Amino acid sequence: MLDVTRLRVLAAVARHGSVTAAAQALHYAQPSVSHHLARLEAETGSRLVQRAGRGIRLTEAGRMLADRAEEILGRLDAAETELAALTGLRSGRVRLAAFPSALGTFVPAAAAGFAAAHPGVDLRFTEAEPPDAVRLLRAGEVEVALLFGYPDAGAPDLAGLRHELLLAEPLHLVTPAGWAGDTLADHRDRPWIAGCERCRVALVRACAASGFAPDIRFTTDDYVAVQALVAAGLGVTVLPGLALCAHHHPGVRTIALPGAGRSVYLAVYGEPPDPPPTAALLGQVRAVAGSPAYRKGVC
Question: Which keywords appear in this protein's UniProt record, sorted alphabetically (predicted)?
Answer without folding.
Answer: DNA-binding, Transcription, Transcription regulation
